[in-house]
């Protein structure tokens, strides 16, 4: 594609068996706002974001990633992308049409190379949002999503070819090879990353906080709540963002972050960061060391939604 049709990450939709417990977590201690609910589906917004919602929860028999939604610049761009994906033999789940989710809009869904459901939408009505205030330790917006793939280079190539993602940086270990590719659709260092894992799954969701103080206050609130912390607080090298990772009630990894790097795309050249050097994982040196237990938690469960479109 010669023109970048995608603009930003909109929302991530999760299905879980214990719906009430999951909803209590995200609309409670995690700091999102429930804006709509209907028959076992809830829509959760971030107070600082114009997106109608950034997380959708659905009650289901099995835990799965329902879909990842990206914004497009226009409805014409949605149509163009659908045509390009069809020409590239990508399997569409639906044709471009009006959406009936909060805020409406115009969009369609398709499977990525690993079988995840991806949605692209434009012309969604902006939500009335507000400025998150000083010391208010709630998410401002959805920052990025990280996906586990058994072949990160094939997944990277697919997103580059079909959705015009661009590589920002790579993390590797000399004796193991490449472990993670950071991918962007704007000057934000990454809205998605692809991590090497034993199966297709969600690795983590990341939520942007107002600033360092709010990030630390939020981290403290989660710790006091008894939520399971697996890694952090610290500051990554790739993306230069802060991190603290927790588990939600169904074992999905969720992150508080802030200050994700913005790039000059005209001059940026990707780096390869060697993870045997601890400062490349955590510049500050304040986080507990990355180990196999943390990696196993981030591998998550096998995604039962691969090449199975969500019912809604």
Automatic annotation (TrEMBL):
The keyword Metal-binding applies. PANTHER family: METHYLMALONYL-COA EPIMERASE, METHYLMALONYL-COA EPIMERASE, MITOCHONDRIAL. It comes from Lentzea kristufekii. Keywords: Metal-binding. This is VOC family protein. The keyword Transmembrane does not apply. InterPro entries: Glyas_Bleomycin-R_OHBP_Dase (IPR029068), Glyas_Fos-R_dOase_dom (IPR004360), MMCE/EMCE_epimerase (IPR051785), VOC_core (IPR037523). Residues 8-123, 141-259 form the VOC domain. It comes from the Bacteria.
């Amino acid at each position: 594609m010669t023109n970048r049709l995608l603009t930003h990450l909109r929302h991530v939709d999760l299905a879980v068996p214990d719906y009430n417990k999951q909803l209590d977590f995200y609309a409670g201690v995690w700091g999102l706002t429930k804006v709509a609910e209907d028959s076992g589906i809830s829509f959760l917004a971030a107070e600082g974001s114009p997106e109608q919602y950034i997380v959708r929860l659905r009650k289901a028999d099995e835990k799965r990633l329902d879909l990842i939604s990206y914004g497009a610049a226009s409805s014409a761009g949605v149509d163009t992308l659908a045509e390009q994906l069809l020409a590239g033999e990508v399997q569409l789940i639906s044709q471009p049409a009006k959406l009936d989710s909060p805020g409406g809009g115009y969009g369609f869904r398709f499977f990525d190379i690993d079988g995840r459901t991806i949605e692209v939408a434009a012309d969604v009505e902006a939500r009335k949002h507000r400025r998150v205030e000083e010391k208010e330790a709630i998410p401002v917006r959805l920052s990025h999503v990280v996906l586990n793939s058994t072949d990160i280079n094939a997944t990277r190539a697919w997103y580059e070819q079909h959705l015009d993602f661009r590589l920002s940086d790579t993390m590797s270990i000399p004796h193991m090879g490449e472990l993670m590719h950071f991918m962007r659709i704007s000057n934000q260092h990454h809205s998605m990353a692809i991590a090497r894992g034993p199966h297709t799954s969600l690795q983590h969701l990341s939520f942007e906080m107002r600033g360092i103080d709010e990030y630390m206050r939020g981290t403290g609130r989660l710790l006091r709540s008894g939520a399971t912390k697996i890694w952090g607080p610290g500051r990554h090298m790739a993306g230069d963002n802060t991190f603290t990772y927790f588990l939600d009630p169904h074992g999905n990894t969720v992150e508080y972050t802030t200050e994700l790097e913005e790039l000059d795309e005209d001059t940026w050249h990707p780096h390869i960061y060697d993870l045997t050097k601890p400062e490349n994982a955590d510049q500050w040196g304040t986080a507990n060391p990355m180990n196999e237990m943390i990696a196993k938690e981030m591998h998550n469960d096998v995604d039962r939604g691969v090449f199975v479109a969500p019912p809604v």
